[in-house]
Amino acid sequence: MILASSIPAYIGFMITGCCFNVFTFEKLLEIDNKTTNLITFAQNIFIFLAISLYLAYTHYWDNRKARLSITSWNVAVPILLQTLGANVNNFVFQYNLSMPTHIIIRSSGTVTTLLLGWVFFNKKYTLRQIIGSTLIAVGTVLFTLNAGQQLESSSRSSIMGVCLLLGTTIMNSGLSLYKESIYTRDGSKMDWKGALYYNTVYGLLFYIPLVGTIKQELLSLWRSNQSFGELLGWNLVTQMSCILGVNLLVFKVSALSFTIILLIRRFLSLFLSMYIFETPVGQWGIFGIGLVILGSLTYSLNNNRPVSVVKKDQ
């Protein structure tokens, strides 16, 4: 049984790992922004090996439910789509999208979660939830715009990247709501350890056609930049911490709360990056920080989960 008191620990675990992971990811992209395939492939391999050893050590597969749960389409399909979305989110950097632009577009996740939850999942949100999530999204956008980087020009490549990112943002919002409904109805079918394992298995399948490209990227970078290996090592460790926190939380809090946590994490990642690289913060940036803090306080004051309206059969 997961105690509510353990949720803040999971949040801290995720935010710490994810923030430093973004920092190492940015440093790797500074060396070569065409290495996202190599980086994400290495992350998948590392996490796959780690979770496989853990499941073997704990005799996870001895449990019949664990072996059979993935055969259910309502479990397998969301995991496959989540893996696809995660890979697309990293792949879009090859379309000349900067990290601030990436964060701005992903900030729409709170709004899409609210709308999808209301329209398709019969959820009712309180006024504090709506105001709080909106303030956090607006504050993050304002702070991100202050990062000193111009949004990309409307080239065909950039437009394609924006469209892909918007599509995966909407899809991830829907998946979070769907997982919440499945876990509420039958929590025994959803297990974070099995979900993480199959996420990495499905993820590795996406890289089969890219093996040659990944090998060339690795050889080229290893010869040209000696610090790449060390940075990649730190990126793998922090990614493991980040992904563990995400998978521990995804079935323990509501879809909207999960989206809010991810948005705050992205805000903190950008804030840390700007602090380390000594990027100046203007008035709008300070105003954005204030909105994020105010929105977080407003949302946290709401202790009630959104109500699902159950329609009775006529």
From TrEMBL:
One Gene Ontology MF term: UDP-xylose transmembrane transporter activity
Keywords assigned by UniProt, alphabetized: Membrane, Sugar transport, Transmembrane, Transmembrane helix, Transport
Gene Ontology cellular component terms for the protein in this record: endoplasmic reticulum membrane; Golgi membrane
UniProt GO BP: chitin biosynthetic process; UDP-glucose transmembrane transport
SUPFAM superfamilies recorded: Multidrug resistance efflux transporter EmrE
Signal peptide per UniProt: none
Membrane topology: Multi-pass membrane protein
Chain segments annotated as transmembrane: 6-25, 37-57, 103-121, 130-151, 157-175, 195-212, 232-251, 258-277, 283-302
Protein name in the entry: UDP-N-acetylglucosamine transporter YEA4
Lineage: Eukaryota, Fungi, Dikarya, Ascomycota, Saccharomycotina
